[in-house]
Each structure stands twice: as structure tokens, then as C-alpha cells.
Design goal:
This protein is α+β, with helices and mostly antiparallel strands and about 210 residues long. The chain has six helices and ten strands. The protein has helices at about 5-10, 20, 125-130, 135-140, 155-160, 165-210, and strands spanning about 15, 20-25, 35, 45, 65, 85, 100, 110, 115-120, 160-165. The strands form three sheets. A four-stranded antiparallel beta sheet has the order 2-9-6-7. Strands 3-5-4-8 form a four-stranded mixed beta sheet, with no helix packed on it. Strands 1-10 form a two-stranded antiparallel ribbon. It is globular. The mean pLDDT is about 85.
Length: about 210
């Protein structure tokens, strides 16, 4: 069963507006002139390319660094249990991709990014799984007229409702989805190792045959 299916199986719980149980913080906007060369001392900025599209995880390729003189609020630094989300991109498929933040980080996030944070009656990991499910993706598609130039507007958050089970049930759902994802990732890793081994075997056999040692 998909994560969307697991969440939908509990859809008999009350649906509540996103803005009632969580909130959105927009990233820092800065002029390009404040960017510094790689390796410089400054503030590290994560952007859309720092979230993998397929795995909803962070990567640290091409992290931008800006001057420490930039006006950055404390709320624009990543904190434990944040959900970092892409709210604007030149590519429509990247809008809405997200990553869960497991610990406080010495990184801020850029202007085309945002952080989702819970208010009450909601655990962050459950919200993350809702946001990365087809439940939220379909909401974005239904409200495509509210999205201009591949950008999630405040109206999208205001109109989004999600099922909110009791906290204990949310924890059970999040744990079940985490377990499912870990099992899938483990299988994928094994398959990749098998493919690599088979490729090496094929190359070795080719060399043996070409060299006349069969």
C-alpha cells in the first residue's frame, strides 16, 4: 500500500485546515551580489536543487554561500522537525518536493523555498508524509489556477485540508510509512548491488571470450 493509501485509510478522522494546525515560513531573499565563492565563510543556503526529486531527501550539492551581513531571520534557519519544501521552480515537477529535517542545521533556505512547521494537534513526521503523498499533489493540481509561474501561493495553503487523527494514531501511521519506505530503500539498494555485480560479470566474460580463454 502507498503512503497515500495508508493515510486515506484513516480519512474518517476530521479534516482540518492546514493553517489551523501548521504554518508556513518563507525563505530568505537576497541579491546575487551577496553570493560568495565556494569555501568562503558565510551563511549556507539550501535551494530547490538540494532536495532529491525521487527520494524527498536532502543533498548538499552546490550549496550557495552568502555574506553574513545578509538580513536573515532566525526563523529562516532550518530546525529539527521542519519540512523544507520547494515553493517555486522553473520546472513544475519540482514544485512541492520536500525533505524532513531531523536536527537543527546551520543552513538557511532560499526565497523559492519554505519551511512547514506544526502548531498543535499534529506531529511533524505525519505532516511530512501527507505533504509528500498524492493527497497534497492532487490538491496542487486542483488549484493550478492559484499557482502562477510554477509557484505555490498562500491561497494554496489556506485552502488545503488534511485528516488529523489523534496524536497516537498519527505516530502509528508515520511509523508504518517509515518502515515501508525503509524496506523499499533496502530492496532498491540490493537490486543496485545485484545489477553492479551482473555488469562486472558480463564484462569479465566478454574479456575472457575475446582473449580466447573460454
Amino acid at each position: 500500500m502507498s503512503k497515500s493509501g495508508i493515510i486515506r485509510s484513516h480519512s474518517h478522522y476530521q479534516c482540518r485546515p492546514f493553517c489551523e494546525v501548521a504554518y508556513f515560513t518563507r525563505g530568505v531573499i537576497y541579491p546575487k551580489s551577496m553570493e560568495l565563492p565556494q569555501g568562503s565563510e558565510g551563511i549556507k543556503i539550501l535551494r530547490a536543487n538540494n532536495i532529491t526529486l525521487s527520494g524527498n531527501t536532502l543533498n548538499f550539492d552546490d550549496v550557495r554561500i552568502i555574506s553574513a551581513a545578509a538580513a536573515i531571520k532566525d526563523s529562516q534557519f532550518l530546525k529539527k522537525n521542519d519540512i523544507l519544501i520547494c515553493i517555486g521552480s522553473g520546472s513544475r515537477e519540482h514544485v512541492g518536493k520536500a525533505a524532513f529535517i531531523d536536527e537543527d542545521m546551520d543552513f538557511a533556505f532560499g526565497g523559492f523555498m519554505g519551511a512547514l512547521r506544526v502548531k498543535k494537534d499534529l506531529i511533524p513526521k505525519y505532516l511530512f508524509h501527507v505533504i509528500t503523498s498524492t493527497i497534497f499533489k492532487r490538491h496542487l493540481n486542483r488549484h493550478s489556477n492559484s499557482i502562477t509561474i510554477n509557484n505555490i501561493t498562500n491561497e494554496v495553503w489556506k485552502s488545503f485540508c488534511l485528516p488529523v487523527p489523534p496524536i497516537r494514531k498519527q505516530e502509528e501511521i508515520a511509523a508504518k510509512i517509515d518502515s515501508m519506505i525503509n524496506a523499499s530503500d533496502s530492496l532498491i539498494d540490493k537490486l543496485k548491488s545485484e545489477i553492479t555485480a551482473r555488469t562486472l560479470q558480463k564484462d569479465l566474460l566478454r574479456d575472457i571470450i575475446i582473449c580466447g580463454k573460454q
